[in-house]
Amino acid sequence: MPDRTALVLGCGAMGAATARLVIEDTRFKNVVVADRDLQRAEALAETLGSPVTALELDCRQEDRVTRSLGGMSVVLNTTGPFSRDTLSLMRTVVEAGVPYADINDDVETLQSVFDSEYLDSLAKHRGVGVLPGLGANPGQTNVLAGHMASRMDIVEEVRFFMVNDAIYHNEAVWRHRLALFSKPALLFDRGRWT
């Protein structure tokens, strides 16, 4: 069995769900859950049990992030807001030669990631994958809509509705979600934004 370790950044609802998925994956021997609030990370690690350990880590502190990457097989970023310091965090992780994925759903940030020739060449040089935007919006939702539309003769309109029973304790989350659904959608097609 491989001796892989996943570093999950962020111990909120999405970080907890991500950590649970990694625990179920037999390819990973260890999971480290990291948050800038150590008590939050420890509480999640205790809830999930072995093989999960907690780490205090502020993603905005590049030197601490770099030190935390030793022995990591992948970084799964669930922190937010993604409009803040995402590119520098990605660069730090990729420079260390560690694959990176996130649930980034900030369109402008995703656009800057896809437009970054430096990040692209760095990832290729280090031989690591970078998978941003794995969240439900705008990631999977618009991909699914595009796939469904490609199977139809004519598509006049696509509408998205957000229905969930999640309880958000932070008004910023609702503001962010509503902003995502109120703007015209961007499409990255054949290497260009349209």
TrEMBL record:
Domain Saccharopine dehydrogenase NADP binding: 7-104
Matches recorded under SUPFAM superfamilies: NAD(P)-binding Rossmann-fold domains (SSF51735)
Entry protein name: Saccharopine dehydrogenase NADP binding domain-containing protein
Source organism of this protein record: marine metagenome
